[in-house]
């Protein structure tokens, strides 16, 4: 035990000292009694027969006597001796060196070869300057002994004080340490930064990448300074950042004082404000008294009629005012001086405010947080007040906003931090390298491309996902840290605007909305999600769309989100144009900030074709493609209600050879097991489609698509004419786009089409379907497209068409659908229907979508006997010919077995996506069987179903209006 050791050390040492002291006294006594003075002189402890050279008054009124050899002897050098400064000496008359002959005692202040100077405590009146001679004898040092004894006694009873740590280390009670950290949880890069900051003489820069605990480190540095008794002025560019520091320093029990108008401070901070502290100071009541007196005098002045009295009161008021001012100034100074840490914004630290009442050198250190986001000039407001500064921030995030392009380009936007890093590099900088925010997959990109690959993710966040949050189901969206939704080729163009700052992209807004829907339906709280856009116009569009439904959802510009974080971040990059212009996005630091706000999930919606023209953005797209899930926006573009196939036309093709208007729209359905492309010949041009806009595909691309489509179709038709050929194999070398076309053509012609083989060797086999077992196929009434295109239908049924629904059913169904399509103003496509050759070779697809009102019956149908198709109202027998859906495990007729048709679209989609994200390849072809539905997914589907029902209800309510306008 430390105390025991100290105690026993002290008592033992005191005894020993006593013994030593006694021995010394004894020796002196013996010498004085037994040894001749001459012998003592030869031992060096005595000087004989000295004369007083001079006597003067020295420090603290003591007499300084200079003792020298006798001058008349012609010797000016003292015998060799041991006298030195600090020795206690006695001056004796020539009777000897007995106590009786002692003239005075003193301390040697100077010893040279020719003289000894002694400062005497008791002014010796009887010294004779000229004639008398004296002996000088070294005495035992009683003073030293007494002081040591006192120190030991104090050491013994030491409980708290500056030497506590020292005592404990020197008595082996604790290990000596270089620096004792107040926050023991600091990681090694943070410790290094703290030590570095403490050891630097003038400047230390703490570079804190996103989520690396910059504030934690700065707080520790400040507390260490306070522990050393230093006064710190701590500033940041924004009130929020300053308040954050106030809060954390106050929690650590530092005496903080926050300058600034109380109205601008957070409520929790207000008690640390200068006004609040003043109100509780000793001076407060005096000041209040003076104020009261002043008020009284004022009142008196108003009432007083007498002129003389009035003048008298006026004088009184002015005197009181003067008194008040001095009192207040004194109170402010006192409060400021008492604080260990004074905090203000950079500009709040100005000389005309409260700080003017402090001496210029009051502060030892200035700490500036968020230094990379402030103009250097603003940093100089606090910097002029201290001899040392600590600058913290991240110069890889956005620099201060500067309105003047010229000023910015000429260097005004270069922050002090950036300048120092550039000029001095590592000699003044320490970087924090462990980050506590992002899932590793999100972090790696920023680390690699912004922070020299130096960041590591702390174990607590490394793998965290949205699904780990309470109440969040495991669905695909919540299990992936990175999701890229690519709008390339989907025609979701940015709005045309001349102003570079105001770009918008309504198509990306749609997709963001759908993704937010998916996240919230999976149980992610909207307050945990941020939607970030680089452009204010896009922010406005997003707010208009989303804020009513999700009031807690934060939608902000990148710049507005700096310094913040969210569990999930949805980023829309907006730019989508043919020229590949990215403008504003070209600021790497803006993208860095946007991406690094995300803790568990980052979704980026962008046109990869446009944004990858920029090298830095390309690194992000590449990273997400490699380490994350990738979807094409096509997947989102169907307005799919459960079970219905409402394809959105997204791909408009101009075909000059068409007899109709020449426009074709390709509705893509990349969902589920069967990525299909549907082509309709509504011919009405893009204006009747809900997503009009010029195609992003170049005319070349469009023409190529048509040519290929025609080629494949010709090939399949040749196969059909050749009855000997059982199946038609397409080579595995087809790209995914061509595969889509093959599936499409086969589907249109009512043929079986199936992908076979694995991986790269996958190929499509097209074959004739088995002969229709029952129910003659009748030519159903052609559906009139929404645009009302009248066209003669003369083509025969496709051989072995997949329709086995009764003609009556179908007719009823289709007529209904057509009506709906017309009413709703968009097109409903089904997977197949009557094919009809047009010159362009495109075919029309008739609708087989489920009407909204039938939703209830869908649920009823689920429990219906297994003998008929499980699709609502479909009575087709599936006893002989049916298909089992691998997702819902129910039998469907061939007209309804496609997952999207009967409501398994999401599962099929998820399944396909899973494969795409696992294998990184978009296969055309049927999916793998996945019968398992995990309980979380079930709950999720339920929630989704609920919200769909609500949506549909709403739609039904709002529909009539739309009908009128249509
Ligand atoms: N040594 C540490 N151990 C565990 N968690 C830490 C450590 N340092 C920081 N953190 C956590 O990291 C998060 C961010 O820390 P802090 O608030 O200090 O950083 P900041 O300055 O606000 O953010 P940034 O680093 O992005 O500037 C906090 O949740 C904090 O608890
Ligand atoms: Zn199904
Ligand atoms: Zn059916």
TrEMBL record:
It is an enzyme of class 3 (hydrolase). Its EC number is 3.6.4.12, 3.6.4.13. It is found in: Cell projection, Axon; Cytoplasm; Nucleus. Its main location: other. GO terms for cellular component: axon; cytoplasm; nucleus; ribonucleoprotein complex. Residues 863-912 form the AN1-type domain. Residues 683-702, 944-966 are annotated as: Disordered. InterPro entries: AAA+_ATPase (IPR003593), AN1-like_Znf (IPR035896), Coronavir_polyprotein_1ab (IPR050534), DNA2/NAM7-like_C (IPR041679), DNA2/NAM7_AAA_11 (IPR041677), Helicase_ATP-bd (IPR014001), P-loop_NTPase (IPR027417), R3H_dom (IPR001374). Residues 684-697 have a biased composition (Polar residues). Transmembrane segments: none annotated. Residues 303-330 form a coiled coil. It catalyses: ATP + H2O = ADP + phosphate + H(+). Keywords: Acetylation, Activator, ATP-binding, Cell projection, Coiled coil, Cytoplasm, DNA-binding, Helicase, Hydrolase, Metal-binding, Nucleotide-binding, Nucleus, Ribonucleoprotein, RNA-binding, Transcription, Transcription regulation, tRNA-binding, Zinc, Zinc-finger. Residues 706-770 form the R3H domain. GO terms for molecular function: 5'-3' DNA helicase activity; ATP binding; DNA binding; hydrolase activity; RNA helicase activity; tRNA binding; zinc ion binding. 5' to 3' helicase that unwinds RNA and DNA duplexes in an ATP-dependent reaction. Specific to 5'-phosphorylated single-stranded guanine-rich sequences. May play a role in RNA metabolism, ribosome biogenesis or initiation of translation. May play a role in regulation of transcription. Interacts with tRNA-Tyr. NCBIfam families: IGHMBP2 family helicase. Homooligomer. Interacts with RUVBL1. Interacts with RUVBL2. Interacts with GTF3C1. Interacts with ABT1. Interacts with ribosomes. Belongs to the DNA2/NAM7 helicase family. PANTHER family: DNA-BINDING PROTEIN SMUBP-2 (PTHR43788:SF8), DNA2/NAM7 HELICASE FAMILY MEMBER (PTHR43788). This is DNA-binding protein SMUBP-2.
């Amino acid at each position: 035990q430390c105390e025991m050791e100290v105690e026993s050390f002290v008592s033992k040492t005191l005894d020993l000292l006593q013994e030593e002291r006694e021995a010394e006294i004894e020796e002196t006594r013996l010498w004085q009694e037994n040894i001749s003075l001459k012998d003592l002189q030869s031992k060096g402890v005595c000087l004989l027969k000295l004369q007083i050279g001079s006597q003067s008054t020295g420090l603290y009124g003591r007499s300084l006597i200079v003792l020298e050899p006798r001058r008349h002897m012609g010797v000016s050098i003292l015998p060799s001796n041991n006298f030195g400064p600090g020795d206690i000496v006695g001056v004796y008359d020539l009777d000897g060196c007995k106590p009786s002959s002692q003239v005075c005692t003193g301390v040697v202040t100077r010893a040279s070869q020719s003289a000894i100077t002694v400062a005497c405590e008791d002014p010796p009146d009887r010294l004779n300057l000229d004639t008398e001679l004296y002996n000088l004898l070294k005495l035992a040092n009683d003073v030293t002994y007494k002081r040591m004894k006192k120190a030991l006694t104090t050491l013994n009873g030491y409980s708290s004080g500056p030497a506590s740590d020292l005592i404990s280390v020197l008595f082996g009670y604790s290990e000596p340490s270089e620096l004792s950290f107040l926050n023991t949880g600091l990681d090694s890069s943070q410790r290094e930064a703290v030590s570095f900051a403490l050891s630097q003489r003038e400047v230390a820069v703490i570079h804190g990448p996103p989520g690396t605990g910059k504030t934690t480190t700065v707080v520790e540095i400040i507390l260490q300074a306070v522990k050393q008794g230093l006064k710190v002025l701590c500033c940041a560019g924004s009130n929020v950042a300053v308040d954050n520091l106030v809060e954390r320093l106050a929690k650590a029990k530092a005496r903080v004082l926050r300058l600034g108008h109380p109205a601008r401070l957070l409520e929790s901070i207000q008690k640390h404000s200068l006004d609040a502290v003043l109100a509780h100071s000793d001076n407060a009541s005096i000041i209040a008294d003076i104020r009261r007196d002043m008020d009284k005098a004022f009142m008196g002045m108003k009432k007083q009629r007498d002129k003389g009295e009035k003048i008298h009161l006026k004088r009184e008021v002015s005197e009181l005012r003067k008194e008040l001012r001095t009192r207040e100034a004194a109170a402010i100074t006192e409060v400021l001086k008492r604080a260990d840490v004074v905090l203000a914004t950079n500009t709040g630290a100005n000389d005309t405010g409260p700080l003017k009442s402090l001496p210029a050198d009051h502060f030892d250190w200035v700490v500036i947080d968020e230094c990379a986001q402030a103009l250097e000039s603003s940093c100089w407001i606090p910097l002029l007040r201290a001899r040392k500064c600590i600058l913290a921030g991240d110069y890889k995030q956005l620099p201060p906003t500067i309105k003047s392009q010229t000023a910015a380009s000429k260097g005004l936007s270069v922050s002090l931090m950036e300048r120092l890093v550039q000029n001095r590099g590592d000699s003044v900088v320490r970087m924090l390298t462990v980050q506590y925010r992002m899932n590793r997959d999100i972090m790696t990109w920023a680390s690699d491309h912004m922070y020299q690959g130096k960041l590591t993710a702390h174990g607590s966040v490394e793998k965290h996902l949205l699904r780990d949050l309470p109440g969040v189901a495991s669905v695909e969206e919540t299990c992936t840290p990175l999701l890229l939704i690519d709008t390339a080729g989907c025609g979701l163009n940015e709005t045309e605007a001349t102003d570079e700052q105001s770009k918008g992209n309504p198509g990306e807004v749609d997709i963001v909305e759908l993704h937010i829907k998916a996240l919230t339906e999976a149980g992610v709280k909207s307050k945990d999600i941020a939607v970030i856009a680089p452009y204010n116009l896009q922010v406005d569009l997003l707010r208009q769309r989303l804020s009513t439904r999700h009031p807690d959802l934060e939608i902000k510009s990148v710049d507005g989100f700096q310094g913040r974080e969210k569990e999930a971040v949805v980023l829309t990059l907006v730019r989508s144009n043919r020229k590949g212009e990215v403008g504003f996005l070209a600021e790497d630091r803006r993208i860095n900030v946007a991406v690094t706000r995300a803790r568990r999930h980052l979704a980026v919606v962008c046109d990869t074709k446009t944004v990858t023209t920029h090298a830095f953005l390309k690194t992000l797209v590449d990273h997400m493609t490699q380490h994350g899930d990738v979807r094409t926006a096509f997947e989102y573009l169907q307005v799919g209600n459960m079970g219905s196939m409402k394809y959105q036309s997204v791909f408009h093709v101009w075909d000059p050879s068409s007899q109709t208007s020449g426009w074709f729209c390709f509705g893509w359905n990349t969902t589920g097991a069967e990525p299909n492309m549907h082509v309709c010949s509504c011919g009405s041009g893009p204006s009747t489609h809900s997503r009009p806009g010029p195609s992003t595909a170049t005319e070349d691309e469009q023409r190529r698509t048509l040519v290929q489509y025609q080629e494949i179709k010709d090939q399949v038709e040749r196969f059909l004419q050749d009855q000997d050929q059982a199946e038609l194999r397409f080579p595995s070398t087809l790209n995914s786009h061509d595969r889509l076309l093959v599936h499409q053509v086969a589907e249109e012609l009512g043929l079986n089409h199936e992908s076979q083989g694995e991986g790269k060797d996958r190929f499509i086999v097209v074959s004739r379907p088995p002969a229709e077992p029952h129910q003659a196929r009748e030519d159903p009434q052609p559906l009139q497209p929404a645009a009302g295109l009248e066209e003669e239908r003369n083509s025969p049924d496709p051989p072995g068409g997949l329709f086995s629904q009764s003609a009556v059913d179908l007719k009823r169904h289709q007529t209904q659908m057509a009506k709906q399509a017309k009413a709703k103003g968009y097109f409903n496509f089904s997977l197949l229907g009557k094919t009809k050759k047009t010159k362009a070779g495109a075919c029309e697809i008739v609708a087989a979508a489920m009407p909204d009102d039938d939703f209830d019956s869908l649920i009823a149908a689920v429990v219906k006997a297994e003998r008929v198709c499980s699709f609502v109202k479909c009575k087709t027998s599936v006893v002989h010919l049916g298909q089992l859906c691998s997702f819902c495990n129910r039998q469907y007729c061939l007209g309804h077995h496609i997952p999207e048709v009967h409501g398994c679209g999401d599962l099929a989609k998820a399944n396909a996506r899973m494969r795409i994200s696992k294998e990184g390849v978009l296969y055309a072809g049927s999916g793998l069987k996945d019968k398992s539905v995990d309980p979380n997914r079930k709950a999720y589907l339920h929630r989704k179903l609920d919200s769909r029902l609500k949506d549909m209800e709403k739609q039904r309510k709002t529909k009539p209006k739309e009908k009128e306008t249509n």
